[in-house]
Amino acid sequence: MPELPEVEVVRRDLERELIGKRVKSVEVDGMRTVRRHHNRKQFTSRLEGKKFVGVERRGKYILARIEGGDVLVIHLGMSGQLLRAKSGRETKAKHTHVIITFSQGGQLRFIDPRTFGEMFVTEADALNRVSELSHLGIDPLENALSWEQFGSLINQRRAKLKPLLMDQKFLTGIGNIYSDEILWGAGLRGDRTSDSLSAQEVRRLYRSMVETLQDAVKYRGSSLADMQYVDLHGKPGEYQQHHKVYARDGEACRRCRHPIVRERYGGRSTYYCEACQV
Predict the structure, then answer these.
(1) Which of 5, 94, 95, 244 could, after both became Cys, cross-link 216 (CB 3.0–4.6 A)?
(2) Considering 57, 60, 220, 244, which one is annotated as catalytic?
(3) Residue 2 designated active-site
(4) Domain co-membership, 23 together with 53
(5) Residues 17-35: pLDDT tens digits?
């Protein structure tokens, strides 16, 4: 599933590609992707003839603002991809569910094999009434927090560190990959409780979170073996080449040379170094 860095890369790509373009037509294959609308026409009519004027992000939701006050909300789900096509003549990938064609030429295509992702259009002033958006926690890439503020928030919670990092009502957008990478960077185990951290450990955790996510965006996200994440131009990210623990079980820790361990924790694979994460 794309996490915060991958969605931010796609948002930045869309910002360069979408703004100022007017929608000529919209094709929808089935209702699963636009399931919040009663029918396809209710979705397509709010886009056709309209121009995109901005692209923002709330957690893992992309908000493409449309002239007149509407917003196209996009969630990639587990396997969703947004791909730019130069023309309608380009081969359409399997599982392409929405095609937005622009008056200036070119298309934006939404591909989603597992169909957990979605698109819907709503009024800008109704965004806060969308439950998935209204309950989001701190955005580690957008919200400027000092480590002291972060520490105050984390010490109020008596929770294991890995589930807490992945709690979307606390921190938005961090999943299995980046929680493991952040914890390795901080030298902390995922089963430590948040209220057990010293001030120095809180600083390390905060610094690792900020640096890990910024580096992941710089390297344009992580593309794993399934290649479910690619950018708007169909290119994979490169941050997987810089992973310190994720999917590196049995390999040497890049800090202490002990082998990386993989364990099942909370129904998920967790990767960490037994020697230098405490």
Answers:
(1) 5
(2) 60
(3) yes
(4) yes
(5) 999 999 999 999 999 999 9
